[in-house]
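user: Here is a favour to ask of a fellow structure person. I have my own habits and do not want them to colour yours. Could you put it straight underneath, so I can go through it closely?

assistant:
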Amino acid sequence: MLDIHVDLMYKTFGYRFIKGPQLAPAQIHSLGWQLQNSAAYSFDGMKRHDEEGNCIFQYTLSGFGAIEYGGSRHVLDKGSAFIAAIPSEHRYYLPKDSHKWEFIFITLTGDYAISQWKKTQEQFGAVLKFK
């Protein structure tokens, strides 16, 4: 059982595979649990050339962030998530009026993962709410 008095340890894990043809339809590229409190936290989906071919699922635990997608700005508060493929026209960031954004995320790579992300976006949208 977790001791509630133990300090939280935010971490990110990255997986690096040999470049070249992918054998698996989807692979984990990175996953993690982060707390962001800097206005410098901002990612533009069209400028992440080192991440091309990846897709992201990011779920908010506390605080809030924002994503601009399809010409609209969406607030990502507790229970909200977004999915995005790279490259695509989106930007997610810590807004100036947010003091923190705590979230978990997983980034997958592979043609199958990207095709499923796109199908999910078509059916449910890029921003999802969970109870």
Remarks:
- Residues 111-124 form the longest helix (14 residues).
- Confidence is low (pLDDT under 50) at residues 1-5.
- The first strand starts at residue 11 and ends at 14.
- The chain has one helix and ten strands.
